[in-house]
Design a protein that fits this description.
By secondary structure, the chain is mostly helical. About 5% of the residues have low confidence.
């Protein structure tokens, strides 16, 4: 047997033994997208992102690039890497602001912030960012199917911010820092007029005014509390405060009612 033929035969046997007949690697962006989707569906985000990144590097098709960019953000979100996911969603919105997936990207931006919200007694910056993102989604895409979900998140986020603001106001009040408490309570009442504890907020505001010897404002707030919340647990205390305040020349209303 000729030497060349013998060498070819051995090479063929060697390839069979070690697996030379490996599957060909994908060569088109469309194949990369399919493989990325395959691994994304199987919760293998890092592998999926590698294929989507190849699309960004090798494709000249803007539609393919947009889809790959969005799916990189999706993969990061599913990996719970919310900081990087935010960056990638924002990048998508900057590059493709009128793309059909732009509304979803804006919604997901809010979801990333939502996942990073801190405890009520900590800084609420991410809560405010989430609220801003969902409000922008509502403003830009008022007919999107996700609007009801966004509205629910907005309500929850507002309640959380109101609770945080009230906790800070209570802290200042209990510390005797009445000027700081007044500022916080006025802001709270203005921004969250449907606050469930609005009667308590009014009582603390009135008592802070009283402590600062601003009896006119204290009387006005107490009268508002008595008039608007006839079943409040603060009603008796509010009436007692009204009776105890120095004379201001303003009628005391129903301060003596039982």
């Amino acid at each position: 047997m000729p030497r060349g033929a013998r060498r070819s035969g051995w090479l063929l046997v060697l390839c069979v033994l070690v697996g030379c007949a490996a599957k060909p690697q994908p060569r088109t962006p469309q194949e990369y997208l399919r493989l990325g989707d395959y691994y994304l569906a199987r919760q293998r985000g890092e592998r999926a992102r590698q294929y989507f990144q190849r699309v960004l590097e090798e494709s000249d098709d803007s539609a393919q690039q947009a889809l790959a960019q969005f799916k990189i953000a999706e993969a990061l979100y599913r990996e719970k890497n919310y900081l990087e996911a935010r960056f990638e969603y924002q990048k998508f919105l900057e590059l493709y602001p009128v793309h059909p997936l732009a509304s979803r990207a804006q919604f997901q931006l809010g979801m990333c912030y939502l996942q990073e919200i801190r405890a009520p007694d900590r800084d609420q910056r991410t809560t405010r960012e989430a609220l801003r993102a969902f409000r922008q989604f509502r403003r830009q895409y008022p007919y999107d199917p996700l609007i009801p979900e966004a509205e629910a998140h907005i309500r929850t986020l507002r309640q959380r911010l109101a609770a945080h603001e009230f906790d800070v106001a209570r802290f200042y009040y209990r510390q005797g820092a009445y000027q700081a408490a007044i500022r916080r309570l006025l802001n709270l009442i203005q921004l969250y007029p449907t606050l469930p504890q609005l009667d308590e907020a009014l009582y603390l505001l009135a008592d802070s005014y009283r402590a600062e010897e601003n009896y006119v404002k204290a009387q006005r707030v107490l009268r508002l509390l008595v008039d608007r919340f006839p079943t409040s647990k603060y009603l008796a205390r509010a009436r007692a405060q009204l009776r105890a305040l120095p004379e201001t020349g303003i009628p005391r209303g129903n301060a003596h009612a039982r």
